[in-house]
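hey so i finally got around to running both of the ones u sent me last week. sorry it took forever, my laptop kept dying halfway thru and i had to restart like 3 times lol. anyway pasting them below in the order u listed, first the sequence line then the structure token line for each. didnt double check formatting much so if smth looks off just lmk and ill redo it

first one:
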Amino acid sequence: MKKELIKAIERKEIQLEKLASKIDKSYICSQLYNKVVIEKAILKKELDDLSKNKFADKIIRLFPHKKTLICDYFNE
């Protein structure tokens, strides 16, 4: 799964390189370029999600951290 995502991202990068020179010439190429950029971002996000440790994320959510508010700086 991870290798497939990496290959798909590489294919999107190649598509972006080919479309980059034609962005200004055609509205359709510009739209296609934007679509490929979004698809590449989605693939990168999926790859990041695969590499995350989901068990550790669940434990971190169980223990809330105390957030520092701006008024806490003025109480001292």
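and the second one:
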Amino acid sequence: MRNNGARLFRLRGLLFAALVYLLLDYPIRATGAFGFPAGVGIKNFLPFTGGIFLGPAGAAGCALGAAASGALAGTPKMEILAECLCALAAGLGSWLGWFSMHRDGNVRLERARDVGIFLALAALLSAACGGITAALLGGSLFLPTAGGYLSLGILTGLLACILMGGIFCVRPPLPPFCAFTEDIPVLLSPDSPDFDAVNEAIEERARALSIPLKRVFEVENCLEELYLRLQKKLPGAEVRGGIEMGATISMRICAEGKKANPFLREEGDDESDLAALKLLRHRALRASYAYGGGENRIHIVV
């Protein structure tokens, strides 16, 4: 089941990246509104962002979008080939380069060091894209191509990565040499749910990061309310997961059993249940629920 889920995620990622690339590129390419080479445009940030957050599927999707856009606009085949190779190089290079420096799976650009790594990768890969284009189409295209990838990678790609990694806390696919590491593991057994230990770990980490106590209490309260709602729907279920703390706080938990969405109102909910549900919805910047493989998976960003 999990393999099927991973394949579906890759397929969706490929199609999504291809569609976004096509929509950003084809209208400009078809009208010829700008005098840039075919491989240069606002779409140049997508391989960086898509590569980091969608992995090889994102890089391949950008290449597919470039091929589709070029074919529809009647772009010469060598120009299409050069653009596809650039998309693959920038996408795969971003994915492997970023996670070789962040083997815990972190994509939070909150520190100057992380921003510097992104900028260095963008510069290196932009030069590589310029070299690919120059080798296939002529040396005069090196600077326009490298400049397009670098400028859009910084102006748009950096902002997109900050939003997706730091605000929405999207979890990307990782290379084989990486593994996700949560700041605080969560394991709550129905026999004796040890909230004190989890809360103590949250507060200790928050002090180290200078996170206000108000937000700490919000996270602790969300975790407790989610646990209680899951126990009501899935009596005796073990709740496990992890919490990542930074500018935003991301909490991912799961519980095995039948489908039980804790964010939905049930007929048997009393006033306290409805108050807890409203509290969860009010405090979460982003909340999502998914069910698959016999697992209820919840993600909340506070």
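quick thing i noticed on the 2nd:
The longest strand covers residues 249-256.
anyway thats it, ttyl
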